[in-house]
Design goal:
heterodimer, A: mainly alpha, two-stranded antiparallel ribbon, B: 4 helices, 56% helix, elongated
């Protein structure tokens, strides 16, 4: 009898271990999105501060040149730090599913920054209409992989709401991008012209990511996709 | 279910681990290898056995010109797995009651 009980306990602990490994655990994954949202918000504030700094102290100021170089790489470095922290340092809290999803998102966010950097450096430096259109297309390098990753997240997490919201936002983005409309953004007496599609990208990458993280955290708390172990 | 009548599918821990992993959905051979930490030969043999018992089904296709097998638990396999977990639970409950 003792032997049977020992075997039963071993089997139960094995089943629990494997199920915990393979269930859709959103814990680290939800924090990852909240951090990505935070990083993009800081980047947004830094970019606009840089813009106003340029207006105040001029293009040729040493401070401006140094700050612009730092801010240029802020996003990609922050993504690498965030990915490394989630994937390496939180490895013990990540299960099989979570680690796959973090890998996909890390690859897409860091990869899109890398390709957008290459793209910007390959565009000819003149002021023709073609070059202006190519500059506008830079944002596609960033947002299209994010849309693909969001669709994948919705499908793999089996959360239809993520897929549907991503589809709606994608259509909205296409409409905004093709309309090529700009609006004036004023702060501290300075005005900057922004395309409405770039504003939507900022909203998706800041507020959108934070909301997605909070949604996944809520799902985690309500044991949305967990098996009763 | 009685001790003497535990299906053969649950008589090795690797088979139990495979079935537990498939509860959350279809997995490829590579996924199962990563989850169970088993060797290719042992994992392949146990998967074939489970397929023979009709606990799992295999879908073979090509991904980037390389063969890829993905495994899914069948309704019968899921029912047997649930029965086995319930049996383990009742075994431990009886042991606690006797104590």
């Amino acid at each position: 009898m003792e032997e049977n009980v020992k075997r039963a306990m071993d089997d139960i602990s094995l089943i629990k271990h494997v199920i915990i490994q393979t269930q859709k655990d959103f814990s680290v994954f939800s924090s990852f999105f909240i951090w990505i949202g935070g990083i993009n918000f800081i980047n947004w504030v830094l970019e606009y501060s840089l813009y106003f700094m340029r207006r105040v102290i001029g293009y040729n100021s040493l401070y401006y040149i140094v700050c612009s170089k730092i801010i240029q790489f802020f996003l990609v470095i922050s993504y690498i730090v965030c990915y490394t922290y989630c994937y390496k340092c939180k490895r013990n809290s990540l299960n099989f599913w979570g680690s796959k999803m973090i890998k996909i998102w890390g690859g897409i966010l860091i990869g899109s920054q890398f390709f957008s950097f290459l793209y910007v450096n390959m565009i000819a430096q003149n002021n023709s209409d073609v070059v202006n259109v190519l500059w506008r297309c830079k944002e596609l390098m960033i947002i299209v992989p994010v849309f693909i990753a969001l669709f994948m997240t919705g499908i793999l997490a089996e959360r239809r709401i993520i897929t549907v919201v991503t589809a709606i936002i994608s259509l909205l983005y296409i409409a905004m991008f093709t309309s090529m409309k700009n609006i004036n953004f004023s702060i501290l007496g300075y005005t900057k012209q922004l395309s409405i599609s770039s504003i939507l990208i900022n909203v998706i990458m800041t507020l959108g990511m934070v909301l997605l993280g909070m949604y996944l955290r809520k799902e985690e708390e309500t044991d949305g996709n967990k098996f009763d172990t | 279910m009685e001790i003497s009548s535990i299906p053969e599918a649950f008589q090795t821990s690797l088979r139990i681990a495979i079935l537990s992993a498939l509860i959350s959905g279809t997995k490829t051979f590579k996924d199962l290898k990563q989850i169970t930490g088993a060797t290719d030969g042992n994992l392949g043999a146990q998967l074939r056995k489970l397929e023979e018992f009709e606990y799992i089904t295999v879908n073979k296709n090509f991904v980037k010109r390389k063969p890829q097998s993905s495994y899914t638990i069948t309704k019968y396999g899921l029912k047997q797995f649930k029965d086995y977990v319930n049996f383990l639970g009742s075994l431990l409950q009886n042991y606690d009651d006797e104590k």
